[in-house]
Design goal:
Layout lengths: L7 H9 L7 E2 L4 E3 L4 E3 L2 H8 L4 E2 L9 H7 L5 E3 L8 H4 L6 E5 L11 H7 L4 E8 L9 E8 L6 H24 L32 H10 L6 E5 L2 E11 L10 E3 L7 E4 L4 E9 L5 E2 H7 L11
Parallel strand pairs: 1-4, 5-6
Antiparallel strand pairs: 2-3, 6-7, 7-8, 9-10, 10-13, 11-12, 12-13, 13-14
Helix pairs in contact: 1-6, 5-7
Length: about 300
């Protein structure tokens, strides 16, 4: 059970290692793009290529959805970013339970946006946890964990990709041990638990009164979605890539200034320090380097954001 692109490596790894995948469950096709044409989840596309049966129920509360699943008689259900909360009636079906691939070192960063949460928190490391699913989200005992460092250049897109590969390998290891009776699940320490809910589009709007480090983390955490943005001349201006200069003085929060000697030469004042801007995208335009943007918008230096 999975939907987005970063769940595909786990599915492909199961097939590659000879597991009998009797079915793939994913979200229904959704309209997307300007034409609002129906688009299939990445997991469905992968499953079709692998010749696997695909089911796309809107909900397991629909009559017959649980019965259909039970008829498949799965030994274990593997879940990776499926996009639905599984009811107890589903959790009770497989004798080896439901096994979830979660992109954090549980119990830290439970919830729907663990990669975003790790970057926003300034964590030096994150990782993958393979855990047994319980009705309360991400609280089940852990079968295996693996940690990786977070690079200062990582954003949610790059870090999620890394974790998807680590998770696929760790899933194979944990599943083999779990099915073979070689792993004892470890309960999570509730005293160490943190939770981060689903983000929305408005979360990306920049408050220039925050520190440069906080805004820099947000630029990375909210890329590729929803993006970190401000406004200039009434148009949305996304900050695609940036670096924090916490020791630099500024002429005020939101004030744009030249930064001679720095990579892009463009800085924006914050509540503490300066944000060195490396890449931007003005509404209706393509993404570009800060230097390229300045060549076409020479009066940007000296302006104040939002504006």
């Amino acid at each position: 059970m999975g939907s987005p692109e970063f769940a595909v490596p786990s599915l492909e790894r199961l097939v590659l290692n000879g597991h009998d995948v009797v079915a793939v469950y994913t979200q229904p096709d959704r309209p997307a793009g300007r034409g609002r044409a129906l688009v299939s989840p990445s997991v469905k596309e992968s499953a079709v290529k692998l010749g696997l049966p695909v089911f796309q129920p809107d909900s397991f509360r629909l009559a017959g959805a649980v019965t259909q699943l039970a008829a498949l008689k799965p030994d274990v259900i593997v879940v990776c970013a499926f996009g639905q909360i599984l009811p107890q009636s589903v959790l009770d079906i497989p004798p080896y339970q439901c096994v979830n691939v979660h992109f954090s070192l549980l119990p830290r960063h439970r919830g729907a946006s663990p990669v975003v949460a790790a970057i926003l928190a300034g964590d030096e490391f994150t990782g993958v946890s393979i855990q047994l699913v319980r009705r309360e989200l991400d609280t089940g005992p852990v079968l295996a964990r693996a940690a990786i460092p977070i690079s200062s250049r990582d954003n949610t897109g790059t870090l999620t990709y890394k974790l998807s590969l680590v998770g696929a390998c760790l899933l194979q290891e944990a599943l083999t041990g779990w099915l073979g009776g070689e792993i004892t699940p470890r309960p999570q320490n509730e005293d160490e638990a943190t939770y981060f809910s689903q983000i929305n589009k408005e979360a990306g709007e920049i408050d220039w009164n925050l520190t440069a480090v906080e805004i820099w983390r947000r630029v990375r955490a909210f890329y590729p979605w929803p993006g970190c943005y401000t406004t200039w001349r009434g148009k949305q201006l996304k900050i695609i890539e940036a670096a924090a200069l916490p020791g630099e003085g500024s002429s005020g929060a939101g004030r744009v200034a030249a930064l001679p000697g720095y990579e892009a030469g463009l800085g924006i004042g914050t509540g503490e320090g300066v944000l060195s801007v490396l890449g931007v995208q003005l509404e209706g335009k393509k993404a570009m380097s800060a230097a390229e943007f300045l060549r076409g918008q020479r009066d940007f230096i000296g302006s104040r954001l939002p504006g």
